[in-house]
Design brief:
With 136 residues, this protein is an alpha+beta fold. 18% of the residues lie in helices and 44% in strands. A hairpin with a 7-residue loop joins strand 5 (88-100) and strand 6.
């Protein structure tokens, strides 16, 4: 289950975070976490498969997670999380890189970008913003 802070990062129009290091390339606020989640690859296919991942960092733009799977750049995935009201949040994305974790174990550190985030509350917020803009 994601907490309110993670939910805000995924659904709000957050201001870009100032770079914390000279080589920092990210411009979205991100949160460190150790959240376990199910990650589905090849969803909707006969050979769909699911693996447990540990999410390390999460932002509106993407995610970093650990997995025992070796993944390839461009591979699509979907992570399903639950919000504080037990409603699903579906994070769709594509793998950017997969490298052996620095810890020296059997885990891989994966970086990915989101292509879509589906959440009932986010849809409700957008609808309310549109309604307020039209009706004043």
């Amino acid at each position: 289950m994601i907490n309110d802070a993670l939910f805000q990062i995924l659904t709000n129009d957050a201001q870009p975070m100032a770079a914390t290091a000279p080589d920092e390339r990210r411009d979205q606020p991100r949160m460190m976490t150790s959240l376990r989640a199910e990650c589905v690859f090849d969803f909707g296919q006969v050979y769909e498969r699911s693996v447990t991942v540990v999410i390390r960092e999460l932002s509106r733009a993407g995610v970093s997670f650990l997995t025992s799977e070796r993944l390839r750049a461009g591979q699509e995935f979907m992570i399903k999380l639950m919000d504080g009201n037990s409603r699903p949040v579906f994070l769709h994305g594509a793998i950017v890189h997969c490298q052996p974790d620095a810890g020296g174990g059997k885990l891989n550190n994966v970086g990915a970008v989101f292509t879509r985030v589906d959440h009932p509350a986010a849809t409700e917020q957008i609808t309310e913003r549109i309604r307020a803009a039209i009706l004043g």
